[in-house]
Amino acid sequence: MANERRKFEKKLKAFDLPRSYVSYDLETTDKFENGGRVIEIGAVFVDKGELKETFETLVAIPDGTPIAPEAFEKHGLTREDLEGAPEVAEAYIRFCSFIGTLPLVGFNNKNFDDRFLEAIATDNALASIVQNSRDVQELFEQLHGGMYTSLKKVCETYDVVNEEAHRALSDAEATAKCYEHVLKELEASSTDARDINVAVTGDSLSGEVICFSNGKRTATRLCQELAKSNGAELGNDVTKKTTLVVNLSEDKYTSGKVKKAQNQGIRVVDKEEFYRLAGRELTDESDWRTGVWFSDMDPIELYAVKQHFELPVQKALIYISKDGFSEKLITNAFGVQVSVIEDDYKEHPVKDARVRSEEINGMSTLDVLCDDGYEVRLPVNTAYFAQMNKGFKSFVRDMSSAAEKENEDE
To answer: How many domains is the chain built from?
Structure first.
C-alpha cells in the first residue's frame, strides 16, 4: 500500500488533541493476526511537553510460544529475557495503574498495539483503555498529505533520535517527541480561534470579538494573530458576542458568516479596513522589490509579497541544476543515434529568499539562499515554481515508498 493516500473522516484540529497523555509502545512475538503475544510494554507520561515519568515491563508468555524470526530481528528479545517477568494480566493491570485516566498516544497503534491491548482486556475480563487513543502515524499523515509513513521516517523529519529503536520504552519516548512536533505544527497552521496563542502587545482592538471569513488559511492565521496581539477576542463563528466580522475575500464574496453578521447588524469590514483598525498598513508594492530577505519581513507583508508574485507560500526544497547541462547520445525509436541534453538536479533545503528588481530592465528575480551555502538567482516565473512544487511532491512520494513494510511493528 506504499504511495497510497489515506482518507480521513475528521478534519484535524490541534485544540482537540491532548497535552497531557501517556505515550506507549508494545513489542510482541508476532503480528496480531498470527496469534502474537505481548512481551514488552513501554510508556512515558508527558504533561504539557515535559516528560514526567516512565514505565516499562517485560511480559511472560506461555511455554512453547514461539518468537517469530522477523519479530526477534527487530527487538532482539528471547524467551530467556522473559524469565521472571509478570504474567500478561498483571502487566496490564500495572500499565493501567500507570495510565490512570490519561489518554493514550501511540504510533500505528490503531492497527497494531491497540488490538493487543483490547484482546488482553477481553481475555482477562479487564477494563478497556484504548477508547480515546491517538495515533501519531495517522496525525502525521493527515498533516502531510496522507502518504503512508513509519516511525523512523517521522523521527527523521523532526530530527528525533530513537536510541534503541524497536524496544518499547525507546519507541514510546520517540513517539511522544514526534507527537509534540505534530502538535506544534498543527498549532502553527491552525485557524481555529482556540489555537491562536500570541502575546498581547497592543490594545487597538481591545473589546472586539472578531470572526474572520473567506480567507485562505495563511492569510486568516496571520490576521487572527494580529487581532489577538492587539487585544481582540477571536471566534470561529458569528454569535451574539461577535462585534466585528472581517471579510478577507479579494472579490468581496458574501459568505454565510457575512450574511449572518449583516442580518444581525454586526459590523463587517474588508481586509484593508481591518489593518487600519489594527494600526497597520501594507507597504507599497514598489518597496517589495528592495531586496529585503523574507526572514526580516513582517509575516503579513511576506504573505502579501508571495501572493503578489505567486510564489510558493511554503517552500521546503528547491531543485537546482548541479553541474549544468551535459550532452548524451541515445538511440531513438528509429535506430538513429541522436544527441540529447541532460540536466543533473540537486535538492537544496531553502534557508531564505528575497525578491529584487533588475535596475536595467526592471525584471523581478528571486534570490534563494540555501542551508548548504548555495546561492542562486531565479526569474520570478509562475511556471517554474509550479514545476518546483511538483518535483518536491514527487520527492515526498519516493521517500514514502518503503514505509508500508516498516510499519509492521511500529
So the answer is: 3
